[in-house]
Specification:
GO biological process, one term: defense response
Number of helices: 2
GO molecular function: nucleotide binding
Order of helices and strands: HH
Strand content: under 5%
Distance between the termini: 20 Å
Shape: elongated
Number of strands: 0
Structural class: mainly alpha
Family: Belongs to the disease resistance NB-LRR family.
Radius of gyration: 17 Å
Pfam families: Rx_N
Largest sheet: none
Protein name: Disease resistance N-terminal domain-containing protein
Helix content: over 70%
């Protein structure tokens, strides 16, 4: 088995930044979804379904990791 290099400090910082960004994005999507919940138009409902599906797919990716 090949040895794996340990990530350098810069790589660790990037990973942390991406991790934080992903949580910020998820939080903003949740806030947006709360706003859409109060909309009754068909377009808002279709958009809500799309966002929920995207969240499910990204959650599946996190679980596989």
């Amino acid at each position: 088995m090949a040895s794996v290099e340990k990530p350098d400090h810069q790589a660790k910082l990037r990973v942390r930044d991406v991790w934080e960004l992903s949580y910020d994005i998820e939080e903003n999507i949740d806030k947006f979804m709360v706003q859409i919940d109060h909309e009754s138009s068909p377009k808002a409902q279709v958009f809500k379904i799309l966002i929920e599906r995207c969240k499910t797919l990204t959650s599946d990716i996190k679980i596989r990791r």
